Amino acid sequence: MFRFIHSSDLHIGKRFGNLPEDLRGRLCEARHTALSRLARQARSNGAAIILLAGDTFDTETPTPQMLHHAMQEMRQSPDLTWVILPGNHDSLLADELWRRARDILPPNVILALEPRPIELAGNVVLLPAPCTTRRPGRDLTEWMSTAATPQGAVRIGLAHGPVLDFSEDGAKGEVIAPNRAALAGLDYLALGDWHGRLSLNERTHYSGSPEPDRFKHGKPGEALLVTIANADAVPEITTVPTANFAWQTRPLELLGEEDGLASLEAALPEPTNRRQTLLRLDLFGHTRIATRTALAARADALAPQFAHFEVEDSQLLTECEASDLERIDHAGALRLAAEALLAQSEDASLSADERTIAQAALMRLFTYCEKIDA
User: In what order do the strands lie in the sheet with 154-160?
Assistant: First the structure.
């Protein structure tokens, strides 16, 4: 029986430039500490080998500190063997990266820099397909179909790239044959590039990133614990948790007269988990302007409780009636301004951006007048 951890896409050194500076530092550190969490899962589940299927580093030029710290983290687990495959972000074109890595390589780390068989254990052979460039433009796993291994050996493929019509980088095209495991007689094909867990067939799997870096996939980070009883046996696969942060998207439909604030509170995660949660609320449906402004105020109050909190409300329609305008002013300049903004927000001849700006201005005016009355 052979047991190992399959992971990928750590993207150590990712900058997260669109987020606040203090949070960027926390997210960067979480990507580094994913190595120790993978090691803990390997030990606790009786796995001696960790396969990293590409994009261990976010760029082809990680700083010397990033490289050293990553290698040192792996060195601190001498009971485990790590196999690092170049991906499209840290491809073989990164000569300096892999030269420096070889110079400080711990004895328990294998760099899979060539498409040649690597013996992992007695009668277990790894067939790696390192990315030659960011966009190889061909199926780098093709060589696996003709790779010779000992009779009865467990054959494990390791590759990075899109299958069918997806890629994290938006690339299209059938780059890796989805039936490569069958074509090459692989007992398991460990893939990287897709940041969420994805199973193509019983022998071909994307592990997803151990530490999420976006709202796209909607699942916590995890790795795969893979057990292969013997050659030709169907692998037994279990997901193991590895994430430090949770990236969550919560849809919230509003239906006009309902209590929008109560619906908002019901959609929130438990308070104990919020410091490690990046939350995006997707609002849609329709609501009155008073509810919308109350929701915006509540969102501002909630934001400090979370690692990151954002509201996507472009699909939420705002209804404004005469009674709402009365709360701004009965007459005079403010009332005239409110009526003009309301008309602009509903004017189909204006662009969507112009209508959105008018609506936002009306909401700000409404909020301002509510504060004065209070």
Answer: 118-121, 124-129, 154-160, 188-192, 204-206, 198-201
149 and 181 inside one domain = yes
Q: Where are the beta strands (DSSP E) in 133-276?
A: 154-160, 188-192, 198-201, 204-206, 222-228, 236-241, 246-256
Please name the residues in contact with 216: beta carbons below 8 A apart, sequence gap of 6 or more. Answer: 195, 196
Query: What does the alpha-carbon distance between residue 49 and residue 124 come to, in Å, rounded to a whole number?
Result: 12
Domain termination site, one of 241, 269, 292: 241
Residues of the domain holding 198: 2-241
195 and 276 in a single domain? The answer is: no
Q: Is the pLDDT of residue 207 over 80?
A: yes
Structural domains in the chain (count): 2
Question: Sheet of 277-288: strands edge to edge?
Answer: 246-256, 277-288, 308-319
| Claim to verify: residue 184 and residue 288 sit in the same structural domain | no
Contact predicate 61/99, CB 8 Å: no
For 266-311, write each residue's pLDDT tens digit.
999 889 889 999 999 999 988 877 788 888 889 999 999 999 999 9
d(CA 159, CA 204): 11
Return d(Cα 125, Cα 214) in angstroms, integer: 34
Examine the domain organization and report whether 104 and 121 are in the same domain.
Answer: yes
Same domain for 255 and 232: no
pLDDT band at 185 (very low <50, low <70, confident <90, very high): very high
